[in-house]
Amino acid sequence: MSLQVAIVGGSGYTGGELIRLLLQHPEVELTQVTSERWAGKPVSVVHPNLRHIKSLAFTSLATLEAVDVLFLCLPHGQAMLRIDELSKLAPTIIDLSSDFRLDTSERYCQWYTTEHARPDLLSSFVYGVPELNRGLLPEARRVTGAGCNATAIILGLLPIAHAGLIDQPVICEVKVSSSQAGASANEGSHHPLRSGCLRSFQPTGHRHTAEVEMALGSFGPMQLDMSATAVDQVRGVLATSHVTLKDRLNWREILAMFREFYKNDPFIRLISQRQGIHRVPEPKYLAGSNFCDIALAVDERSGRLVIMSAIDNLMKGAAGQAVQCLNIMMGFDEQLALTFPGLSPV
Ligand SMILES: NC(=O)c1ccc[n+]([C@@H]2O[C@H](COP(=O)([O-])OP(=O)(O)OC[C@H]3O[C@@H](n4cnc5c(N)ncnc54)[C@H](OP(=O)(O)O)[C@@H]3O)[C@@H](O)[C@H]2O)c1
């Protein structure tokens, strides 16, 4: 029998991607998708790419029925307020918001400048980056999706953090697309203001800093100095991390270390090409795919290592990674419903 799954907050951008993926999933039956604004209307009214794929209408949260797995795609701050009522509907919860990503209420308070409503539950969630926490997922009943920028940075740094090679701090610049802000209109994503933009909207203080320091801090001291720049794209994250290594290694040695570390991770694609424009990752070729593409460069003058990691924020940074976690949690093939490789040209 198929796994019964529902989505809370399915009219938004991450919810739309989850619907697309779960409708293609051979082991899953998507039973309900909620939206308060669109209850009773077909999901294709909001997500036109899903026209004629399956007849599925939005329902209101109040009419949600019990399922095996509930995906939460609510705005920040909602999941922690509703977690008790939602937990009664499903034994397994995968929350895409930032509500349960950080491990302590102190860390949460420092970065979100407000008290957490349910600090008692923070430790019950597994941070859902499979390349980092694969071993914890099969036993997990609560998983939190990771931030999209945090995912791109973590996957770029993970092999060298694991090897204890990072000399502090790491400096990282992320280029971010407009869909990160969700489907509701705001000043940052309003077309006349966003179009053509190249805006350093968060030179310091980005909240995803906390996730990266938490996730990689388990391997040793981790200080991330992160800046974020908004670019004129709908999807994608490109993280450029600048690292001083404790040991001076050349490009081949570092690539070999990354290859060994990621040898069993099907969604990490290391770029070893050294010539041509495709020697570096570009988010646009990842649109709709769950891959993270990573390239390395070493400044032979200074020894600085530059790691470029790119993802689709709505896929490996949200819905795709959530389905990857589901697959591992349920003992399915990790790649089920996630094999789309992206488009070129696009
Ligand atoms: N966008 C990204 O790149 C990205 C990446 C990783 C994680 N995330 C996180 O994932 C979550 C969802 O992001 P998103 O981009 O999909 O957001 P979104 O496009 O703004 O969608 C939010 C969804 O929540 C519903 N909703 C809003 N307020 C609600 C309320 N009070 N009660 C019940 N439902 C409510 C909306 O439905 P109706 O208004 O139709 O009822 C909509 O379906 C966020 O917490 C975000 O931080 C986003």
Structure description:
The chain is α/β, with parallel strands linked by helices and 346 residues long. It folds into two domains: 3-145 and 318-330, NAD(P)-binding Rossmann-like Domain (Rossmann fold); 148-311, Dihydrodipicolinate Reductase, domain 2, CATH 3.30.360. The chain has nine helices and 14 strands. It has helices at residues 13-23, 79-87, 105-112, 130-133, 148-162, 191-194, 208-216, 251-261, 319-330, and strands at residues 3-8, 28-34, 58-59, 69-72, 92-95, 126-127, 142-144, 166-176, 198-202, 224-231, 237-245, 268-270, 292-298, 305-311. The strands form two sheets. The protein has a seven-stranded parallel beta sheet with strand order 3-2-1-4-5-7-6, sandwiched between helices. β1 (3-8), α1 (13-23) and β2 form a beta-alpha-beta unit. α1 crosses α9 (319-330) and α5 (148-162) packs parallel to α7. 46% of the residues are buried. The mean pLDDT is 97. The structure holds NADP nicotinamide-adenine-dinucleotide phosphate. Residues 9-15, 35-38, 61, 73-76, 78, 96-98, 145, 148, 179-180, 182-184, 313-314, 317-318 line the site of NADP nicotinamide-adenine-dinucleotide phosphate (NAP).
- What would you call the quaternary organization? single chain
Largest sheet: 7 strands, parallel
Morphology call: globular
Beta content comes to: 15-25%
CATH fold assignment of the largest domain: Dihydrodipicolinate Reductase, domain 2
Mean pLDDT: 97
How would you write the strand order of the largest sheet? 3-2-1-4-5-7-6
Helix residue percentage: 10-25%
Q: Given the structure, what is the number of helices?
A: 9
Alpha-carbon distance between the two ends = 38 Å
Tally of domains: 2
Q: Give me the CATH superfamily of the largest domain.
A: Dihydrodipicolinate Reductase, domain 2
Based on the coordinates given, report the CATH architecture of the largest domain: 2-Layer Sandwich
CATH hierarchy, class of the largest domain: Alpha Beta
Rounded to an integer in angstroms, the radius of gyration calculated over CA atoms is 20 Å
The hetero compounds bound to this protein are:
NADP nicotinamide-adenine-dinucleotide phosphate
Structural class: alpha/beta
Q: Which runs of at least 5 residues are low in confidence (pLDDT < 50)?
A: none
Spell out the helices and strands N to C. Answer: EHEEEHEHEHEHEHEHEEHEEEH
Structure summary, number of beta strands: 14
